[in-house]
Amino acid sequence: MPPSELSPLEWRGDCLRLLDQTRLPHAEVWRDVRAADEAAAAIREMRVRGAPAIGVTTAYGMALAARGAAALPAPVFAAAMQRAAETLGAARPTAVNLRWAIERATAELAHGRAPREAAEALLDLAHRLREEDVATNRAIGANGAALLAGVSSLLTHCNTGSLATAGFGTALGVVRAAWRAGERFEVFFTETRPWLQGARLTAWELARDEIPARLIVDSAAALLMQRGAVDAIVVGADRIAANGDVVNKIGSYALAIAAERHGVPFYVAAPVSTIDPRSPNGASVVIEERPEEEVTRLACAPIAPEGTAAWNPAFDITPADLVTAIVTEQGIVHAPYAESLPHAAEPAYAR
Ligand code: MRU
Fold first, then answer.
1. Which of the two ends of the chain, N or C, has the fewest CB atoms closer than 10 A to its terminal CB?
2. Which atom of ligand 1 is nearest to the CA of 192?
């Protein structure tokens, strides 16, 4: 199956099946998720990752909790759903799509339905969000492809493809759409320490798409730009604050600084659901800090002396003034973002 058609999550009638991204590219292992706490664990342990995929998995997690409690009396059912929302909500703090999915599910529960009907409604919601995400990503791709007209090389970071979403991808979807539209370029992509989403996952997707691509270590990006070898950068986002600050994979900010220095446009591709009017700026967003061992070890093998301390933030904040444009399914948004985002992303502001 071409990666553009791939979805890392599918409903199997009684459980959610996830493509385990910790095992890629060496093994394609699918894992069944049967309860909300299993969905939360899959998110926390990075078996499913990427903001939109986390959002859709959360919606299925809420649906699974509801199915598991559907035979219980309404007050017990409500308590079980509250617990599920808390467990899923605590899985990872930064991607706003997780909170967004919980709020969409909670809104369904507010209709006062009997538990069995509520469980059906939550499963329908999860299916809907999954389908909407793919359509949204295809629209982001179509909108963003125009920005890549005439580029001969571009740079992307982390993995923002089909694997990071319900399908097609955001930033990698833009790359994919531009390639399909006939643009011809080479993609440089970072390895993305410490989880290596670039080296493992973006490499896997680009190879399957047969798009010419080269892997670089994260710290080679500035030299590449200094040599004039990057015409554009396209990244995704885990949360976009109301002022246009972009919270994305650690290393994005460094790329944006180097891009400004070398006159390279820095584009962000994300669905409207990633825009968070309740975060006034990047500084107000909780940046996830992950275990030290993810830095001091590589594929479980120690690379630093025993006892070395490490700091492992998973995301950083790119200030809005370094962002050339934000591509959403609704169109392309430019600065000043505090004014343009509410118009461009009306559904997010109506929440
Ligand atoms: O830690 P991850 O792999 O979940 O981080 C993923 C990213 O930072 C992506 O750029 C972002 O979620 C957008 S994915 C379409």
1. N
2. 3
